[in-house]
Amino acid sequence: MDFINKVVVITGASSGIGAAAAVLYSKQSAKLVLVGRNEEALNDVAKQCEEAKGIKPLVVKADLTVDEDVQNIVKSTIEAFGGIDVLVNNAGVGFHGSIRDGIELLDRAFASNLRSAYLLTSLATPYLIQSKGNVVNVSSVAGIKPIPQLKLLPYSVTKAGIDQFTRCVALELAPYGVRVNSVNPGCTKTPFLGAAGFSEETAIKAFENLCKNNPLRKVVEPEEIADYMLYLSSDRARSITGSIRVIDNGEMLI
To answer: Organism's domain of life (predicted)?
Structure first.
């Protein structure tokens, strides 16, 4: 697989799965657009990417809940590279809460995890049609099955929305040669739980419990998910669209 002269936009590229994906695409000669809120961390990832093949990524600092920032991602990408071949909607925020915590958490989760991906995909679609490109959405097993021990209701609802968004957009854009797929990780070694509001101690215990209870008794590494994303966005997956791909050490089986 190589992505020579392919323009790949990755949101949430400053850490975790997004950073791992950026490094992997860079090794396949992609022209990268790295999007996130932490500019310093983005620049660190960009440096790693440039070292791979000497191709300097475009860094776009953006808050995806701000429409003008989302519009600027597409505008800056087209100005720099002239098109979009792959859009990776990876950015997402964990929201810890239950139905008794009111509606505010759902509103925030919706804005961060679903509305932002919807808007960015909408704006990128004309360019994806031109390139017959594709979209990879990063969802979660939490969008398919409840994870009651973590109380991730707002997050889970938005990830279920991402899965249906994937199916619907895949069907709509298939006549134009544009593919849309989703990767749904299980327990993964990222800063997710801390960002969701869990204390470090609680996050470590939750991680240990989830890992020891899944069938393969281990955690998913960000690089594994990045590898799956790379495959789905490559020509090797040219007949795959509307697919919800789970990578979870068998977590869905229990």
So the answer is: Eukaryota
- The C-alpha atoms of residue 110 and residue 143 are separated, in whole angstroms, by 13
Q: What are phi and psi of 35, to 5 degrees?
A: -120, 135
Active site residue 231: no
Give the pLDDT confidence score for residue 13 in this predicted structure. 97
Beta bridge partners of residue 184, listed in sequence order:
246
- Checking if the pLDDT of 198 tops 70, the result is no
Q: Report d(CA 14, CA 11) in Å as an integer.
A: 8
Q: What is the CA radius of gyration of the chain?
A: 17
pLDDT value for 150: 76
Question: Taking the chain, what is the end-to-end CA distance rounded to the nearest angstrom?
Answer: 34
- The Cα–Cα gap between 235 and 18 comes to 21
Two tokens at 141?
């097993």
Q: What is the pLDDT of residue 66?
A: 97
Cβ–Cβ < 8 Å for 182, 162: yes
CB atoms near residue 122 (< 10 Å): 12
CA atoms within 13 A on the CB side of 3: 29
Q: Which residues are CB-neighbours of 114 under 8 A, at least 6 positions away?
A: 158, 161, 162, 165
Q: Which of 25, 127, 155, 228 is catalytic?
A: 155
Which two structure tokens, joined as six digits, stand for 112? Answer: 């961060």
Distance CA 81, CA 103 (A): 40
Report the alpha-carbon distance of residue 254 to residue 213 in Å, rounded.
9
- Distance (Å, rounded) from C-alpha 133 to C-alpha 84? 7
Q: Model-level pTM greater than 0.90?
A: yes
CA distance 243 to 232: 9
